[in-house]
Amino acid sequence: MSLLKGRPISPGYAVGQAFVYGADTIDIPRYRLPPDKVEAECRRFYNAISQAKKELERVKAYVHAEVGEEEAEIFSAHIALLNDPKYITRVEEYVRSQQINVEQAVEKTITELAEMLARMDNDYLREREQDIRDIGKRILRYLIRHPGFPMSNLPPQSIVIARELLPSDLLGIDREHTVGIVTEQGGEASHVAILGRSLGIPLVTGIKGLTQRIKTGTRLLVDGQTGEVWIDPTPQEIEGFMQHKQYYDHVSLLTVAEESRECITQDGVRIHLLANIGRPHEAAQVERHQLEGVGLFRTEYMCLDEMTPPSFDRQFEVYKQTIQILGPRPIVIRTFDLGGDKQPAFLSHHFELNPNLGMRGLRFSLSAAIDLFRTQLRALLQAASLSPLLKIIFPMVMGVADFKQALNILNEEAKVMKIEKIPPVGALVETPAAVFTIEGILNLADFVSLGTNDLTQFILAADRNALEVIEDYSVLHPAVLRAIRQVIEVADRKTRPVSVCGEAAADPWTACLLVGLGIRELSMSPVSSSRVRHALRHVSYRELERLAQEALASESAQDVHKLIAGLAARHPLEEHEEK
Ligand code: PEP
Ligand code: MG
């Protein structure tokens, strides 16, 4: 047996045998065209595009019906690419100027665009590289009449192993027989990750050299919670793993059935569950999962793939749409959290040695991106007239001075717009600086939310995206927990609401620990909410309070991990009486 460790992307347990997928092996015919065949060759290209569009419309309708609106939107983006005149003209130009067959021209164009995106200093755009290549393959399939899709008919209990997968690979996959996926590449924010989660397939990425180490037919175990992959496990290991898997599958069924119930602990403490979203249509998930509202709208997602800054009108439209979908529920909208790993194409950034500690978040909004910040505040003030439950939150607050400065700018814009009623304004606490100055921040802020993703990386000096320090990056580290507790104590004393909107809230047992520390509001990716609700409904607050005290006094993240594993083990959830 050998054990590999990657990044867990989609939870669940998989037991099966490897199917090593080599999706990149389309043989491209290469030949030169006689001059009188050039026009016919271009027509062949238009025809392939129109067939690819029809197929995509079909796939989109299927995904909309079977998976959800959000996932179907991926295919709108692909259809838009097929309509993009820049792309079409470039292929035509190659055919005409170099007199090469259209398959070669498509390959050249796609490679150029994909390489350009891969070089971008921006995670979001880098991940769009996959979409470009996906589109290229689709057109090539029509041009070459490439025989059927090799993953549509897999042996039972297949665990797909690939260097990288594309969204369409995942949609054409034999869903019935695919129990897990492991890839070498692919980020958490990639479309494949979103699809994997919503299809409920355990998915692990970030294992280098995977496709060389594993052969089709190798027995594997995949743990989508920890990112562990066992190669050729022993019978005892399979048995132990199966016990975890059966329990996980059983709880999944129970939790979904329980979504309509209140999130309240056994001893009557009510916890508010909200959604983290990045696009307006995701607000529909709030109702689907019976959540109370949106606890974090990451507005910078609307900037990342834009070539021009979003105007007042465009932003207002985005906020309006979101509010309309959400109905009379609360929404916390975060001002643009740009910089770091979120660099929009339209804002030219100076080279930074360490962008995570550079021009980002509120610091960036108050300096180089000040015009964009003011426009956003105006759009938010206007949107607040549509919802009395809209709140604004500033990201990466460092203390009183920057928070005050941002607040002053908001007041100035409100004055210009002759708006008297300013919505509540909060601070994201995600830096040690904000923790140490929380008292002063809370003299000004109406509420705070703990951004545990960044807070953890800054307290522990461990990059949240780096596989190399994955063992050191843990919200369970006592230093992080003490910081969280400190913020809660001050917020309670000042009777100001405090929530958690980092990924820590999405893990059921970490969420329980946060409640034990004093948190009453958790905001998370909607798909994670049913398990969190289920866990919280089956524990008592008194027990969580004790657990939190022990965790605060612990020496290491590993010790705290043991504590929450103990909590999980003490609560075989299905055995509890329903309320
Ligand atoms: C966080 O840091 O926890 C957070 C919510 O912000 P983001 O994940 O968008 O950086
Ligand atoms: Mg953050």
Q: What features would you describe in this structure?
A:
An eight-stranded mixed β-sheet has the order 1-8-7-3-4-5-6-2. The protein has an eight-stranded parallel β-barrel with strand order 9-10-11-12-13-14-15-16, surrounded by five helices. The protein has helices at residues 38-66, 69-82, 85-98, 102-118, 123-144, 167-171, 191-199, 210-213, 235-257, 284-288, 301-304, 312-326, 361-365, 370-384, 400-416, 432-436, 438-444, 452-460, 478-493, 508-517, 529-537, 541-552, 557-570, and strands spanning 2-5, 7-10, 13-21, 158-162, 178-183, 203-205, 219-223, 228-231, 272-277, 294-298, 331-334, 390-394, 425-429, 447-450, 498-500, 521-524. The longest helix has 29 residues, at 38-66. 45% of the residues are buried. The protein has three domains: 2-22 and 157-165 and 177-184 and 194-252, Glucose Oxidase, domain 1 (3-Layer(bba) Sandwich), CATH 3.50.30.10; 35-144, PtsI, HPr-binding domain (Enzyme I, Chain A, domain 2), CATH 1.10.274.10; 270-576, TIM Barrel, CATH 3.20.20. It is built from 23 helices and 16 strands. The protein is an alpha/beta fold and 579 residues long. Residues 575-579 have low confidence and may be disordered. Bound molecules: phosphoenolpyruvate and magnesium ion (MG).
